[in-house]
Amino acid sequence: xxxxxxxxxxxxxxxxxxxxGVTSCAPVLFGTIPYALVLGAQATQxxxxxxxxxxxxGLNFAGGSEFAAIQLWTSPPHIVLIVAITFxxxxxxxxxxxxxxxxxxxLPRRKVFPxxxxxxxxSWALGxxxxxxxxxxxxxxxxxPRYYxxxxxxMYLTWVGFTxxxxxxxxMLGHVETFGxxxxxxxxxxxxxxxxxxxxxxxRPWLVSLVVAALFYLFVPGxxxxxxxxxxxxxxxxxxxxxx
Length: 244
Hints:
By secondary structure, the chain is mainly alpha-helical. 75% of the residues lie in helices and 0% in strands. The protein folds into 2 domains: 3-197, no CATH class; 198-244, no CATH class. It has helices at residues 3-10, 14-45, 50-60, 63-72, 79-89, 92-104, 109-117, 121-136, 145-173, 184-196, 204-219, 224-239. Helix 3 (50-60) packs antiparallel against helix 9 (145-173). InterPro entries: Brnchd-chn_aa_trnsp_permease (IPR011606). One of its GO terms (cellular component) is plasma membrane. It is a multi-pass membrane protein.
């Protein structure tokens, strides 16, 4: 949808903005389904029940940390370790929330808190990109809560629904990684990055973050590469801000 169509949609009522969010999220949803099935299947292989998995994905709603938790799951589980890794992997949400903060500051808390609960990589990327486009076009307010919730709820329901389906079908599917489903996870992020691309100069912090995260992944045990990549990218963006 073009920005001019977005302007028209904004005046058509709340339903139009919500549908616009769902429509914008639809291509991402197709990439989400395979690795949602992978997570569900892996969870059953680790001994989690379908109900336990549905509660985890519904209450946590952060795919990266859920994959990490499943990989670390034992019987009995090491709760402290899993909680620490979950916090570490989800630490990127601090930066994601900070990026959205300028667009959320004028909203009442009854709208901000649900928006932050449904915050994930995909809904954040779509919501932020849309807010920037609306701001550039002079649309006020720049952030459309109904557009964002359309995208976020579509992602939430798809994630919880298909991880649950993966848990149900897990015994029949076996090791779904053999079908290449796990490649859907990085593919979705590449598509999101392409949508946020502006120039090579603006992408330099991404490269710094990638290199640092890769080095930490290779040489430092654990999930420290997530925090290292996020912090190094943030520092690089600050240092290069004057050159972009």
